[in-house]
## 1
Amino acid sequence: MYLGDLRSCSLESLDFITNRQKRILQKFGFESVYDLITYFPFRYEDRKEIASIEKSLLWQKPVTTIVRVIEHDHIYFQNKRHPKIIIQDDTMRAALVGFHRPYLSKNLRIGEKYWIYAQFTMKYNEIQTSSFEFEPYQENVQPKNFGRIFPIYRLPGELSLKEFHTILKKLLDSYLPQMEDEIPVYAVTGHKLLTKEEAYREIHFPTDQKLLYRARLRIAYEEIFGIQIAIQLKRRAVSSYTKPARYQKREKTDALIGELPFALTNDQKKAMEEIFHDLCSPHPMHRLLQGDVGAGKTVVAFFAMLLAAENHHQAALLAPTESLAFQHYENLVRMVKDRVDVALLTSSTTLAERKNILARLKSGDIALIVGTHALLQPDVVFSDLTTVVFDEQHKFGVEQRIALAKKGNHPDMLVMTATPIPRTIALTLYGDLDISIIRQKPSDRLPVRTHWIRPSEYHQMREFIRKQLEQGRQAFFVYPVIEASEKLELKSLEHYYHQIREWFKPFSAVLLHGKMSTEDKMVSLESFRSGRAPILVSTLVIEVGIDVPNATVMVIESAERFGLSQLHQLRGRVGRGRHQSFCFLVTEEDITPEGKERMEIMCRTEDGFEIAEADFKQRGPGEILGVRQSGLPELKVANLYDHRFLAMCTEDARRIISYDPQLTLPKHQGIVQGILRFLPLDYLRSG
């Protein structure tokens, strides 16, 4: 039995978990034994070393200590009586304040000794704590929850930590001895890794800090090694595909690029040459084009599409939203100037128009098509699709990429992202792709001046924006809408919209949010793009896909509620013209330390790669890049910033696939049965 097999072991079949516990666990998202065993503590309390109350005060951190209860007292808080237990160790007295814990006076008896884990502080002229754990002390008896490293899990309120520990111990005892190791024995011994059983016992119930570190290292190795094996196999499979010589000419494409009203950056030119080299290769292109906001990735993607058209083939660009698809379509039409047939296909395309587009696509009359998920429908048939471009690729799942790729014969694939990814991380998560990076921005772009605005500065900001509007400029106002309270938030957004209209009379404003009909969205966008409405009040739907060079102001309300990458994307909507642009990050006066850090980073730098590094460290790369969308397993332990560790896992996987490409050797059957069997097959086929 491998770890992945436990996905099919339902909690319903376990008689040592009560029906109440099962209901709570299932409501919290746990369905199988696998879900529980791979749910790791989010922190640990080291309760092994015994220290004093005095040391806790000096070190300003929690300690484990042995105390005697001296007396019972009480305090009044919010018109309620709460127990206060006076304790003493070898150094001093302190108070345990039991807010909403009326049972303490019964459980902590005067004269008895107890284990206590707490951080003590000086408050109201006494040493006290209100957050503490305790257990009766008995000579020569090992305590249950003290004298060891104690794991802490995020749990629903109805389930106690004690209950969860009991469940986990029984699960580990029942299943770990049966578990086979996916990692080859020579890799485990060569890297001096813990065995699988040792690692999973130690990460849940560590015996010491060194073994806990080694347990995390072992599980991190499993995660990265599994991803790299899949990537190496996929890369080998892709390189085995061959295609006919499709691209002999590029003169017309180069001429169209040369007619652009701006000069290409060196990074753009380099990316184009890398793409052309791939297109001329006997193997299909699989390339990731990444770059900062406003760095000009779209022109590079158009270059690949135009090459297909020039050589009498077809190309498709898939965008995640209608507004972005429409913008790409308009820009492409403007660029080709009626010299190439271009079409747009979205869910809003009329039935008659759709029928016409499908017929012309099938006959080959349409060379280039831009669309949304509508392009993935089974009745969308191409005559000769050779080039596929995905914009904001992490917003598309594996199945969607496969669906479009299957409409051609091993087409050349270009995936774009405006979320800059540190190269080491990109190679780990997208190692099956070649990578082109555009860091340079057009030389005529002025840096966007970013300011963090508190409530006391709001009026001053409004007056500044009015002057920008009077000079003929345009402004975005972005408001967060959270799905959990969408109806309430949309009401709030509309109130905010009416307020802005009042503030900036006589300048008109339009509203844009995800619940509007496509027609209403397009009307709002067109009013803003044309300048008839110089103010756009919007939700995150404008994160990508709106390019208005005359817009010079971006106001992000409740900016602390956005991640760094989102803030950077939003800021990238301005600064696209020749006028100086400004971004205002509006927050409450008092926000979290993490929120403050995000505001400071945004005000300090415009470098998307630096911002991405900070965002990954705050939120984790899986959440930002959509690792689940990629078909790869979720990373729960691995630290993608340990470059040497990543290199080690990658090299191990590369050597194994190079030595045993089909993984037929007995020593590699754990990889086949324990790793590949549980990856979506579509991931390995998606080349």
## 2
Amino acid sequence: MSDACKKYVPEPQPQCGPIEVSAFYYPGTEHMAEWDQVEQTLPHIKPLLGWYDEGNPEVIDWQIKWAVEHGISSFCVDWYWNRGVQRLDHWVKGYYQARYRKYLKWYMMWANHNEVGAHSTEDQINVTKFWLDNYLKTPEYYTIDGRPVVVVWNIQNLDRDFIREAAQKGETLQPGEGAKRALAISNKLAQEAGLPGIYFIDMYHGWEYDQKKVDIAKVGGYEAQMIYNFDTLAYRFAPEAARPGDTPTRFSYDCVAKAVPQWWEMTSRDPKFPLWPLVPTGWNDLPRSFQYARVIEDRTPEKFRKVCQDCRSFCEAKGFKRVIIAPLNEWQEGSYIEPNQEFGFAMYDALRDVFCDKPAAGWPKNITPKDIGLGPYDYPAMPLPAQTAWDFSADMQGWYRHPYGTAYMKTVDGAMHFFRSGLKVPAIRTRITPFAAAPFKTFQVRMRVTPCVDHPPKGGEEIKLYWGTPELPIFSKDLVITEDPTAKTTVIPDGQWHDYTLDVAANPHWRGMINELWFDPSPLLLAYVDIKWMRFA
């Protein structure tokens, strides 16, 4: 059979309206381990694409088709770079191989969650050249007034490092002037490459709207602002919409629907420096945060439709021409509207019905891979290696990073190496072929922990090992990590190699068949971790 005759994703039929709709896209599922945490905690939200291979161009063509047929014309994609080291770029690579990429623009949100000193003149030159060589001049890249758009997650990190760099040369820069210097480098390189410059957008952060942060972004050379997710702020803005018994960490989506119009009004005072109106998509980060999770309940397609209607009315009254869906597919944080088993296409349909002009022939039919005999697109099941010792001489040997707080995980000089943010969750995990606990008394590890210069240890930091059994799983019935099956000891975070022994047999829960392990080398905020080996003995 020729390629032309093979079944494939049907050609997209884009829909649009007077207001341009963009959406944050988080490319956070590069293998089954990330989906596995969702499957363990919130299995009912499984995407209609399955636990899908996010870098598969055919999967991306489905995403493009569904997005543009429901009024979304561009994705703002989380993009990671730390001094030339990239991660989670599998979706962008797959996008540039997708057949239907011409229908959907994309642009990056540089998620610069980087440590002190990661930004510099040299690095800004290097990252900008990478953008120019790979993205900014491609026809698929999103532009405003002919300028490619780059959103930067953290102005403070960029500003801080350029202010430090200037101080090392005897210069004094005021807040915002460091970022201004960085963006000027990028704009100059873009103009030398034949572009009219770059349209930079600042990602706003904060529990309230702070005019000082807006002013610093203006000084820095940004031309607009966005906010990645409003939902977690909603209880503070509209506590009157809460139900009896609601708390700041568990409350109704009614608070979101009531609060977000207040946010739009508050942040629309300067039309020359717009903060894009956002359509919030909920929050439930149980798959990542466990006992520290914030859960927004009672989200429905009807309530989401009302938020969309309010947003369109606001935009028409104020003259806004662009909105941002925040976000589209943060499955691990419970912020999603991409078609799924929980809601089907209902969230997408609500968005389309509000923001698009209905054609005379009616809306395109919602088609799934199953309808036409395509798929499944699931990653292979998470492997269960039969190991009780790991040497990391070549790879991770079945260990995976926790999506919160662990990044840049790779093998370096025969050791597991990663960057730890210090959030209150274990850093790495593995699921294993069950082994009997009884023969083993200790868990041993050779490791070094190197804190970042601006976050020195306070003393007393602990290594922790958690384990699960069929009788006492890591996730309890309340979807929190159970603290009881734990062994720990004090860590020495001095950048030197140390051998540690954790007494697992001292815990009465060290029994039965062990089938899952979670390990936290240190709770330090911003630290590099290297692990030479780990073993039960």
